[in-house]
Amino acid sequence: MARKKAEGYLSGKESRRISKENRKTTNILEKKRKRKNVPESEYLTKMHDPANAVEFDNLHTYFFTDAGTVKSVDGVSFEVPVGKTVGVVGESGCGKSVTSLSLMQLLQRPQGQVVEGEIRLNLGDKAVDVAKMPYEAVQHLRGNFVSMIFQEPMTSLNPVFRIGDQLNEVIELHDGEGKSKEDVKKRTIELLEMVGIANSEGVYKMYPHELSGGMRQRVCIAMALACNPKVIIADEPTTALDVTIQAQVLDLLRNLKDKINSSIMFITHDLGVIAEMADYVVVMYAGRIVEKGTAEDIFYHPAHPYTIGLMASKPVVGKQVDKLYSIPGKVPNPINMPDYCYFKDRCEMCVEKCGGEYPCEVSISPTHKVSCYRYSDGQTPDAARNTEEKKGGTAS
Question: What are 158-186's pLDDT values in tens digits?
């Protein structure tokens, strides 16, 4: 661990030493990822449950920076069942997007690397471990099996190409075998109509800046659905949109998921969106999962103090409060995380054991799991119920 000066800055010598060590580590990982003609047997695997589309198992994704190693995702494990929507919720910087980018292998390289764990992807007739796959092989998965709707469509779309050309390129690259230019254009027009764009022929010839935010997001959704993927990652697709357009986009995603029988991994800050969209919910904090369960488990029986705090900080219709609750304190430094529960310094429900090592995952019910010492004896503490009532209860 690098020694820091009193004012909190690293010396040039220490920074150079960290950079040198990082280069050694990332060069080894990059060399492994860039290999060509890797036999398929090296990354073939078996799903623990064939009913799952994706299984994240003890995933560790780190960013090797000049100030130290940032453990953005630090031992995350959860499943995305076939045909279901899993909502991933948590504050900014908790590792939601990095988890999804690890599946897509779109991390900022060479600094960002998956260093440990498995990401098992169900392809139907077989399963692969994406974490072990070289970049060359992952290219065949993107679009065809896994696709992503990014948060800000204006940065995802190329401003110098027309909408039609950008959609055509996706189809030609991933699903263009045996298709003429007319066939590709016909499929593009179909996709634009499928996502609710009435003037599909006109939009086909437009540039991204000629469209509104909602229309651009629809184009991005069309692009993600172009090859009927098995898993759709929606990374806060409605954050930049107004409420009415947001509702339309959510309805669109829900209907399209059922139409092509895909699974959705829905990343958002908005608990209201999670309540409407998700079958299962994963709550992340500082790179780890603190609680997971069905939507009913999380919304009606929140267990972790962080989840209870998130629920309490959400406005409730018809309930007047003088001041909206906010979770005190701030997230610990990601380069130098504590060796105890990451939420301890912000927690208002600590027990004696909280000073020990990071809590293990405890099953409250067959579907509901939490990482908190308050549940280590297997019983629900009354403190959680009392705090919920004091802060205004859970979201309805």
Answer: 999 999 999 999 999 888 788 899 999 99
E-assigned strand segments in 217-321:
231-235, 263-268, 280-285, 288-294
- What is residue 162's predicted lDDT score, i.e. its pLDDT? 96
Residue 285 is encoded by which pair of tokens?
Answer: 């904090």
Under a CB-based contact definition with an 8 Å cutoff, are residues 115 and 29 in contact?
yes
Instruction: Tell me the residue type at 186.
Output: K
Mean pLDDT of 318-335: 85
283 forms bridges with which residues in the sheet?
89, 291
Query: Would you state the pLDDT for residue 128?
Result: 96
CB 374 within 8 A of CB 383: yes
How many helices (H) and strands (E) the chain has is answered by 13, 13
229-285 tens-digit pLDDT: 999 999 988 877 788 888 888 888 888 888 888 999 999 988 888 988 999 999 999
Task: Name which of 111, 101, 99 is nearest 29 in CA terms.
Answer: 111
Q: How many CB atoms lie within 10 A of CB 34?
A: 11
Longest dimension (CA), the chain: 69
Sheet arrangement for strand 44-45: 44-45, 127-129, 112-122, 52-65, 68-81
> Three-class SS of residue 89?
strand
Pairwise CA distance, residues 372 & 361, whole Å: 7
**Exposed, middle or buried: residue 154 (CB in 10 Å: 0-12, 13-18, 19+)?**
middle
* Residue extents of the structural domains in the chain: 10-145+231-241+265-285, 308-391
Reported confidence tier of residue 379, pLDDT bands at 50, 70, 90:
low
Element (H, E) at 307: helix 305-312
The stretch 139-149 carries a mean pLDDT of 90
pTM, entire model: 0.88
Element (H, E) at 249: helix 243-260
Residue 282 phi, psi (nearest 5): -120, 120
Where are the alpha helices (H) located in the chain, listed in sequence order?
A: 12-33, 96-104, 135-138, 153-156, 163-175, 181-194, 200-204, 213-224, 243-260, 271-277, 295-300, 305-312, 382-391
Question: Which two three-digit tokens encode residue 202?
Answer: 């006109």
In the structure encoding, which two tokens stand for residue 184, read together? 């590709």
Query: Residue 319 and residue 314: Cα distance in Å, rounded?
Result: 11
Instruction: State both tokens at 361.
Output: 């995952």
7 burial class (0-12, 13-18, 19+ CB within 10 angstroms)? exposed
Domain spanning 10-145+231-241+265-285: CATH superfamily: P-loop containing nucleotide triphosphate hydrolases (3.40.50.300)
